[in-house]
Amino acid sequence: GIPLSDFSLDGVSYACAALQGLLFMLGFVMMDRCVWRAGVALTTVASKASLVLSVTLSWLAFRQNAPAWIPVLLTLGSLLLIVLPAENQEHKGAHLTNKTDAQRKKRTMLLLAVVFCLYGVSDFFLKVSQHSVETEDSVISERRMSALMGMIFIVASICSLIWCFLSRSFKKHKLGLSSILGGLVLGLVNALCTSSMLHALATIPTSIYYPSFNIGVVVLSTLLGLFVFKERVKKIQVIGIFCAVVSILLFFVL
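Predicted structure:
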């Protein structure tokens, strides 16, 4: 039999899992609000550009080798080239239509900054969480990582339910079968994604993993839009994809 203690977490791991679950929930909420106010492209850039924050925090906390800042900056540049041209002016939030409204613009910038910080801190604490369950025995580490995963999603689910009740979402929006199925699919995808991230962070330096992951998501979604949904890709986006590939290669060279 497998000792139950192999699946137990210490206080630090429980705290990390609880905080990570809360950050997951807050990230989704703020992402939704930011998309409504600032548009998809600016929100995407804010969330993916957070790699600078997560790389820096990981570097300071775990004393890893200094990140190669040239490919990091090249990654940020490629994000701007890929994402921003895809933003159509008509898809922007209604709150941005009046360019003279300085107060609304400040609120939009504040939301973008919150998304940037939330995703950067969330990615960093995912590394902290993974580090908290590491042991010399790889088998026990694997089991504790599974326990950590379960704890993160339990906390995220509880926080999401509390938020829905506080914001009266169940009264404002009808909860149908399609919404339930969509939530289950999204939850499964996020669980698989989080599991792969935890395993990757156990073996790949954060200065390589975070930029590669963030730029990979953007490049893959752009290519899917091109080949699957027949979307038009501008020349500047092609340049951005090329720069993204170069930046990822540089991470392994520098």
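Summary: The CA atoms of residues 138 and 144 lie 10 Å apart.
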